[in-house]
Structure formats: C-alpha cells, structure tokens
C-alpha cells in the first residue's frame, strides 16, 4: 500500500472526531483537545495538518509544526530551526503494516525540505515504549523526559545529519 499525505480540511471533521475515540489514539494522546472545529478551518504558515491515505483510504493523521512559532507555545521557549511532528494511525486495521513508517518518512522529508531545519522533535508518552522503539528505528535519539500539561512524555530528536545517514543506509539496503 502506498501512503499519500494530503491537507486536512473541514470535510475531515467527522473522521478526526471518530479517530479521537479509537483506543490506540486515546492511548497515545489521552489528554489533548485538538479543537478540530476551529483548527481545520484555520490556515497558519507554521503548521501543516495532513491526512494520510493508503491507496486512497484515509487511515491516519500527521501534524508538522514550527515549535518556535506556533501560537500555543506548547514547546515553551525553543530555538528556531526545529520542527515537531504528531502522528497517529486512526484505523486499527492499518496498524503493524509499515504504514506509520511511510507516513513518518514523508513527514520527515517535508520537515527537512526546509534548509533551515536542523532537527525534528517528537514527544510520545513516557509509557509508550512501542512508540519509543519505532522512533529509535527511524534514527531518533531520546533527549529526555518532559511534562506537557497532564502528560509525562519522553522527547526524541532526529537531527538532519542522522536523517541523512538513515536515508543513505536505506538506499544502500534497497540497492543490495
């Protein structure tokens, strides 16, 4: 199955609400109110909200933000030149099929397309060891624990250099 990321629109509201009620999404993001009604209609230059489609079927969500510029200041006082990613598969039937890896690969390519981006951050729950293993496989390194609102998270970072090395390794692997 091939993944395509497309912009989320107000027409996706019911779908995103549905996904917000799914056990795997609740387990990964139990305390956030995304404010879909407002946010889907608001275009800002520091954020991309994307629906992941597998062969045309919506299966997940990706958000890419510039954490230094986003208006909630979720990441606090943070340096410029970073991106932060939120990602989930909303339909359980699509878990464990490598689609999250495809989603993340496309999200990372979008992040690093901007030459001023030096690293990408992600903040899975501290208890979500499956997510930790997933991000480590992609080349992310743990930065340390951090509390965001009511959630204890483990922040991970992928530098541009580590991303390039991972890309080179994948090309070498696929060429053999």
TrEMBL record:
CDD domains from the UniProt entry: NAT_SF
Record domain N-acetyltransferase: where: 3-161
Keyword terms of this UniProt record: Antibiotic resistance
Name of one Pfam family that matches: Acetyltransf_8
Domain of life (superkingdom): Bacteria
Keyword Disulfide bond: no
PANTHER family: LYSINE N-ACYLTRANSFERASE C17G9.06C-RELATED
Protein name: Acetyltransferase
Organism: Tahibacter harae
Upper lineage: Bacteria, Pseudomonadati, Pseudomonadota, Gammaproteobacteria, Lysobacterales
